[in-house]
Amino acid sequence: QAKAQGQNHYHFFSEALQEQVELRLSHEQAVRRVVQDKRLSLVYQPQINVQTGQAVSIEALLRWPDDDSLGLSPAQFIPIMEDTGLIEQVGIWVVEQAAEQILALGHQIGRPIRVAVNVSMRQLYDERFFDQVTEVLRRTGLPADQLELELTESVLMDDPGRTRDTLEAFRRLGVSIAIDDFGTGYSSLSYLRRLPVNVLKIDRSFVVEIGHNPESESILHSLINLAGALGLRVVAEGVEHPHEHAFLRQAGCDELQGYHLCKPMSMANLTDWLHRQGDG
Ligand code: C2E
Ligand code: MG
Ligand code: MG
Ligand code: MG
User: How far apart are the C-alpha atoms of 244 and 120, rounded to whole Å?
Assistant: First the structure.
């Protein structure tokens, strides 16, 4: 009896596992298909200067095709692209597409605007990446100082020596480097100071604590002060409420990003939004 039950359990477990494996395989196939058919698109979310209210940078974010029933989120399809090695080819497409679109936007509104692009570890470790980005800048005409690369702490800490060379090369070009999701990893600011980084993006998990957790508020204050002392620009991510906005402004944050200010939008909608803001 016990043995039979055990077998049942095993059977049940393997079926669940089987299902997971099949789901993953079907997602993987879907991702390959969507990449091959070039059906991915970008949406754009501004980073707003706290003092002027102006959109100074715009982050490009990948989106699954609207007309595809699977409706995968970046949290689902980016890891698949990273595992399958599709991220290198998609990643450079993102840089190129974003550069072209933001350059055109800048011409339309009559002022230069910076574009921020997310970069995965695999991309940064790809020897071709630096040359490909340089080539995109040359081809599109986007000035290097209008490009910002967002890397997570884990990418920066994984192999700091190897990372530093690549990042320094980008810095020499004039490209800025941002640490995304800051506070979720284990790195210290004093350590990060040794890496060529110019922007700190404070993770949303700190922002949601504003008004609820005095300890997190103290951490935010010291993070923002320390970053300022180190000459880093500080951006807060995921600002959803007016009280968060008010706190971050008072704390001395440079730029804010989040649904409270502006959701990620198509380039057409973003252009309208900027015009309504009195931009251009
Ligand atoms: P991330 O770079 O930290 O981007 C911020 C995420 O927060 C985005 O999610 C954005 O849509 C969302 N967000 C913005 N404002 C708010 C807010 O007020 N509240 C909440 N709850 N969320 C907000 P998204 O677009 O789903 O992207 C998730 C992650 O996928 C990104 O996190 C980034 O790590 C990755 N990703 C997106 N596009 C790319 C890409 O082109 N290349 C790479 N390598 N990764 C990408
Ligand atoms: Mg980002
Ligand atoms: Mg982030
Ligand atoms: Mg993130």
Answer: 29
| Ligand 1 centroid distance, CA of 61 (Å) | 6
Choosing from 47, 61, 78, 259 the residue with most ligand 1 atoms within 8 A of its CB, the one to mutate for a pocket test is 61
Take residue 88 and report the two structure tokens written for it: 């290198």
Q: Which helix H or strand E contains 43, and what residues bound it?
A: strand 41-49
pLDDT digits over 221-265, tens only? 999 998 998 899 999 999 999 999 999 999 999 999 999 999 999
Q: Which atom of ligand 1 is nearest to the CA of 260?
A: 18
What's the whole-model pTM score? 0.94
Give me ligand 1 centre to Cα 4, in Å.
47
- Max CA-CA distance within the chain? 78
What the block records as the tokens of 217 is: 């508020």
How far apart, in Å, are the Cα atoms of 188 and each of 133, 137, 194, 200, 225?
A: 29, 32, 11, 12, 14
Q: What value of ipTM does the predicted structure carry?
A: 0.98
